[in-house]
Amino acid sequence: MAIRISAVVLLLLFSGELVYGLGPYDGQIFRGTIAYSCDGNWNDPDDWAASPVSLGILAALGLQEKLVHFHYNSILWSSVPEWEREHAQRVLAAAEKFGFDRQRFFDCQHQLNEAVVHLADCVNAASAERPLYLVLAGPVDVVRKALERSDPAKRSFVYCISHSRWNEGYARDVPFTATKRELIDLGVKWVQIPDQNVLLSASPYRQVSLVRQPSQSPWVPAAEEDFRPYFWLRDAQDERISFLWESLVASGRPDPSDAGMMYFLVSGDVSATPEKLRELLLTGRIPQRILERPLVRLEAENFSVLEGFQVASMNDRSVSHRLCVAPVEGSSRGLLRTLFDEPYTAEEGTYDLLLRYFLDEKGLCRFRVTVGGNAPVDWALAAHSPTWLSHIVRSLRITRGDTIAIEVEGNLPRIDYVECQLEGRMPAESAAFAGQILAQVPSQKGTSGAAGKREEPPATEHPRFAVTGPLDDPRALPGQIIVAGDRPGYLKINGGQAVFLCGPDNPEEFLYLGTLRPDGTRDGPQMEMIEFLGKSGVNAFHFQMFRMRRCNIKDEGDDTHCPFVDHDPSKPLNEKVLDQWDFWLGELEKRGIIVHLEFYNDATDVELMGWTLDSQGNLHPDEQRFIDGIVKRFCHRKNIIWGIEESSNKLPRARVRHFLKIAERIRQVDPYNHPIVQSFVTPETAEKDIHPDGVTSADYRESPYIDIATWLHIPPHGKDFDAQHAAYLRYALIDRDRFITMRNETEYHPIDRRVARIHNWACALAGMHALEAQLNVARADRRDRILDAGKVVDFMEQTDWYLMKPADHLASGSTKWVLAQPGKSYIAYTYDYTGPMGLKELPQGQYELLWFDSVTGKSYRTRTRQPATGEARWEKPEEFGREIALYVRQLDSPPAGN
Q1: What is the value of pTM for the model shown?
Q2: Are 711 and 735 in contact (CB under 8 A)?
Q3: Which of 797, 831, 861 is the last residue in one of the domains?
Q4: What range does the domain containing 616 cover?
Q5: Each residue's pLDDT tens digit, 375-420
Q6: What does the H/E/C string look like for 289-348?
Q7: What does the pLDDT average to over 595-616?
Q8: Residue 497 maps to a domain
Q9: Are 51 and 94 in contact (CB under 8 A)?
Q10: Same domain, residue pair 762 and 856
Q11: d(Cα 607, Cα 605) in Å, to the nearest integer?
């Protein structure tokens, strides 16, 4: 019998010429030159803002002379005269304001030949010592014309930087005359970074029509609130920065996303955000320069050689940039080959290599990986993949300039990308795998790298989950919410920023809103709520998975509020329900929302339905199946904090052992070490439903698994804000040496928007994460309060609050409450500014002040000098109101963020 081999994949890396190490800009010298290509005359006016911002980035670093070419209005097949003029005016005005040579700027609608000739000359001037970095913010038609005119021997010194499949010629119903493949085939090097729209665009582009009518606006303008991440442009004192705000407004949307490529070129950081742009444009400092990128993704369609493969555009957002390579019909052999030559990478390093692929047909698949002088690593499997799969090869030495080659035989797979990650920064292997591993086939020369397999979780690109440095927890996913530091630690993105949680605690029945369908899923308003949360600025949400009435000691809940087949806990989990939940969790993740995902509603006692611990202390098999199934299904999400039971101390102390076993089981099953929270109701609750045993967080102190203690029904004090702050402070300090502390609810009382807003700040200034049940996203009358909560997140994540402790004794002047890392940084807050805000015992030195109007979200940075240790007071900006937060950082201290 003939054996049909589905695919043989050989991944080979050969030594090649090393062109450069690290990146073009080291903070002082830019090695090379820059060219910029953009449209702005049809389809989307975002370039009206992105072009000036890109010029502003270079000017902030004094790199004007490095820009040797800039052409704009580059869409050749169609154009809107009004758009041409608007974009041209903005580009040339920015060039004038920021000090660029206008002789290097070309309007492709009127100077096409000049633009082509000039860019070709810039290519011809490139060399190994002086490469040309070509930023592509528009279609590549003009660039192709210039490359065709250039010296072929010079093209290898051109690095094309792109982030958009549209600009690369892969959008439907658009008459592109060139694609990026044509540029790659001409010999340039292609550098692909993540889609910067996700990071920098604060509102979607809603197009009315591609048929332009002069009297009709072709796009739907963004709401004023959508511009909030860029209000700092509006509030700047520098006329040049104000011009950037005017350009943003003129474009109709807060979207300078193409400028993210220029930010990458000068910083090595692929995760530009409005806050990072603010730091660079206002101070001339790059917040975090990345000289060696920990992860470099090489898109398969960007490999310099494709044989037997062709570029495929996919209607699948899990595919990187929705582009991959697929077999040419009839091909049984294929080859992908390219150089590992990327900006901001180590000259030599040990990498983990990940190959992402999709096998459409069943059969034996054999893979081989060879890297330079490393011995090959082989593996084989038999199964078509029901989803995209990833295979990891560990510990490969790669030198910049090495060649990566992928040879394929048989029924060729689709290939998405190859990812190179510096050793120790790749996610741990997942045990879940849909295919069957037949063998680890040893090479005749032996193996030097360790091969691994895992099902690839969907990529997340929200800036909140950006990885900007070394991973804190190698076991966790890059970009995942984790607990960092020594006990009690603090919440942080793995490899990224610290996180202060603020957002709605309700509706806790979120998963069950809407009409119950026959298959167990729901037809409800969940996506509308998710979209609102994404725009609001908050970063946290809480809801529950099990709310069955049958085992609730208060007879609350609904027996359909569970994820089991036929709503029967003795039956398996309903996969269709889990699919829907996973989709919603993914949509929340895309919007930067961290979910306190709780297993059980309050007053739930599963022992009433027989889910008791056995004589060895193990969970009931049905409950273990429930816990395991949920954790395995959702642990690939970066935005999960596992919650056990709401208000768990409504049950007797005898149940503590049961809850601790659940925590232990979660930790055993979750390969990524997500945080775990247990919830408690305060003894003062007016509902008087705490169990007489009086369980508190102290009963959990010895558990190695509980990371966070959260409190509900904290006593309310209405408009007595100092008393409310004191109440939060009391619970923030309970077992603070052991747990991260959080509020999930202030006991219900009449409350308006101002009171809700100040309560959130009162909680934050107690050093306590601030979820709140009264911020119910299901209620239209509470949404303004959620917008205010988003401003708390905006401010706190610009500070190093996680290093501070409550220090109200340092307040002076109008200051009411203080968090402090004495001698280094402080947060002062007032709800009633009547005069200068102040701090006591402030050491002598230079300080940066970040003023923040907690009502409007306006901010203002300035500097001051404290001549001698003692009290200091400062006047707020004149246009700010009476509710003010102030971050004070000694300039000798490092900036906030990690």
Answers
A1: 0.57
A2: no
A3: 797
A4: 475-488+512-797
A5: 776 766 655 666 778 888 888 889 998 888 888 887 788 999 999 9
A6: CCCCCCEEEEEHHHCCEEECEEEEECCCCCCHHHEEEEECCCCCEEEEEEECCCCCECCE
A7: 97
A8: no
A9: yes
A10: no
A11: 5
